[in-house]
TrEMBL record, chains A, B:
GO molecular function: 2-oxoglutarate-dependent dioxygenase activity; iron ion binding
Alphabetized Pfam families for the sequence: PhyH
NCBIfam families per the UniProt record, alphabetical: ectoine_ThpD (TIGR02408)
Subunit structure: Homodimer.
Organism: Cycloclasticus zancles 78-ME
Domain of life according to the entry: Bacteria
EC supergroup of this enzyme: oxidoreductase
Chain spans, region Disordered: 1-48, 81-100
Protein name: Ectoine hydroxylase
InterPro entries associated with the record: EctD, Phytyl_CoA_dOase-like
PANTHER family attached to this UniProt entry: ECTOINE DIOXYGENASE, PHYTANOYL-COA DIOXYGENASE DOMAIN CONTAINING 1
Amino acid sequence: MNNTASRHSIDQSHAVEDTYPSRKGLSSITDRQDPVIYAPQNSTPPIDPSQIEQFEQQGFIVLDNIFSSAEIEALQDESARLRSTASNDEQSEKAYTEPGHHEVRSIFSLHENSTVFKKLMMDERLAGLARYILNDQVYIHQSRLNYKPGFIGKEFFWHSDFETWHVEDGMPNMRALSMSVTLTENHTHNGPLMLIPGSHKKFIACEGKTPRQHHLASLKKQEYGVPSNEHLSMLVEKQGITTVTSKPGSVIVFDCNTLHGSNGNITPHPRANVFFVYNALSNKVAKPFCEQPPRPEYLCARSNIKPLTSSRSF
Amino acid sequence: MNNTASRHSIDQSHAVEDTYPSRKGLSSITDRQDPVIYAPQNSTPPIDPSQIEQFEQQGFIVLDNIFSSAEIEALQDESARLRSTASNDEQSEKAYTEPGHHEVRSIFSLHENSTVFKKLMMDERLAGLARYILNDQVYIHQSRLNYKPGFIGKEFFWHSDFETWHVEDGMPNMRALSMSVTLTENHTHNGPLMLIPGSHKKFIACEGKTPRQHHLASLKKQEYGVPSNEHLSMLVEKQGITTVTSKPGSVIVFDCNTLHGSNGNITPHPRANVFFVYNALSNKVAKPFCEQPPRPEYLCARSNIKPLTSSRSF
């Protein structure tokens, strides 16, 4: 009996090979094993080919002027509506607050809470680009509205999203990308997104283990799955830091493994964005690559996964 | 007897009028009562007259290229020496550490600890400009070496230095200025100094009282003497925020009442500067405008005050 149970357990955990082991010992840095652009050479991209090349080399691009003023206003209105609803429901597990404060910092599962944002994530201008880069059908691994208030906005330390999605969600490969649609102006001074260009081509395995219910703390302030200062310094030394400043309605597209973070914000200017993670259908999550049970469905879509259908406009 | 004691006490506390009451009730905003530039009209400034005008209007200026490369290197070496000495003496009341960490954040009383920095504060390029703007002999109210480490640098919330020096030190009027000599590069992303242009022409009285031994906490993270979010928003709305980026060896000169602050720093790039407060000899501190005893001498020079003599070079 024990043998059978054991074999069964081994079958499950080894169904997908762990190409990117992390939180299994000391911090280390290795090369990326996966492509960045999955689209066939010589295929026609939906945006300027130089932007695709930039995405390949730097791990991110910023798309400006793809939404009309009316569209941007509609997104801002919807964000305000969701935040005021979430404030009345502070205990909701899908609404995370600022450490030590009651301001709502993140609202998840936007497709369940908002028709406007559901249409936005299906919009061809976003989903079509994701399908092109990943060369596959795509689905939403996670969606959220992020709000970093003025005066008390806390920092987010450097991290690769893929490291967490791989270890804690069981995402097999680097075949996913994020799109952040800005809803407020990003100045240099209000805690804008910072990225390390080229960092997506390396994988930093992190020290430590994954504690139980890690997501309850890590979404406020991450302490595990954090790259070492030495490896961060090495990458920044070589490639610098890019700070994204932009008007409302810009789209920051970044690879799942691009190292990013943001400083706090003591200015009166809040920051808000909608954040979608597009994953290739062929890259669906399996068993987590750690000893913890899977994270909740609103952080990692797992059951009943269907590819996004095409949509012209939200 | 009681009457005499009481009259004596009244005499002391009312020797200097409290022109800028703060921490006595609700937050409020009033006009500055003092000049910004004390130099007589039509006098010849030691720097470009347009910079003096900018100082008058904005409350700060940045002087570039006033030190040679060799001088900058000497200042950087001296900073490294002082930090390594202070690290061995963590318990020193003159060395403040980062909240929750052991990195040295501030070292005070530089004239006692360092011949190099003592000469720097007397250097005509700095002290001469202070004498011109304040139109008086000057002395050093406070001096410190600030070090904001990479990765864990914490924010400093918005404040007017004068508000603290007035309430806690008994500095009568706005006739003082600060000079910050940068020792590392200030990028937009490593928690550089932010200032609100024009804010020096208003005085924001802060809410709350002054707790006992406030400086032990306030130098790490200020919770009293903090302007209200409403008044900050109002000033920023009108006048914006200026972020100072600069090379090592730049000098940021700002009025004692200019609102300033800085965000945290998750990047690998540390920030260091030497900070001198020049006060007009005629504006010497008196009894604090609060119910607490004076702060220690290393935060506020009080006894045995002598004006700086002129010096050509450090």
